[in-house]
């Protein structure tokens, strides 16, 4: 039985690594951007537009203080309880599936789109959420991930523009222990919102790595999951006291370092977050996210 589990896990890793070759275009195009003066202005305008799209979808009836609930039970949450009107967001782009918030983001939040293939990922490298061609791009979920995977990855650009555009502020914050402790760790502001739930994102590691070496998806061997997460912690630039168990979900926020050479394999910053639900909405057949 143990051998079968190990074989299943190896198959998952092999599958993940083979699929990861599809995102070679990301390595070629890069997720770091060294803008000229005109592009700085353009990315600023496009970033403000993405923030505006999210702002307009905030539900005025949303209560900031959510009730304490037992996450082992199912709860039907009234539509007005959702912070964001995803139907409205999908009018801008039907691929929008989430909003990420944090003090490290310019404007406070960004929309996230779900990609289904390598072509879509390459498209969102150079197009905003409202389908405008721009170096800003859009933050997107890796096309190899499914909705309920235990380990998911989200990609975003890193800009050398002196601002917190896209994942720039996240990368800068999580590479400095003092800045991290005084901002994200202290204000607990990093959160993810979907139409079916709200989640705290607790950073537990920041690693400079080749992201294709990290399996994404659902682990068949939970001991291997814990080993992988421990490896990330051991190689982390920052230190936290976050505890993980075998059933936890992990969201990895990945961007480029300032290494613009795409041939350098370890040219990505991966911020590992424990994804903990704080409010859930009952789904079909009584299943919860």
Question: What report would you give on this structure?
Answer:
This protein is of the alpha/beta class and 289 residues long. It has one domain: Sortase (Sortase, Chain: A, Beta Barrel), CATH 2.40.260.10. 30% of the residues lie in helices and 21% in strands. The protein contains nine helices and ten strands. It has helices at 2-20, 24-29, 37-55, 86-92, 118-125, 168-173, 177-182, 184-187, 222-234; strands spanning 32-33, 96-101, 109-114, 139-141, 151-155, 158-159, 191-194, 197-209, 249-256, 268-280. The strands form two sheets. Strands 2-3-4-5-9-10-8-7 form an eight-stranded mixed beta barrel, surrounded by four helices. A two-stranded parallel sheet has the order 1-6. Helix 5 links the parallel strand 3 and strand 4 (139-141). The longest helix has 19 residues, at 2-20. It is globular, with a radius of gyration of 18 Å. The two termini are 29 Å apart. Residues 1-30 and 283-289 have low confidence and may be disordered.
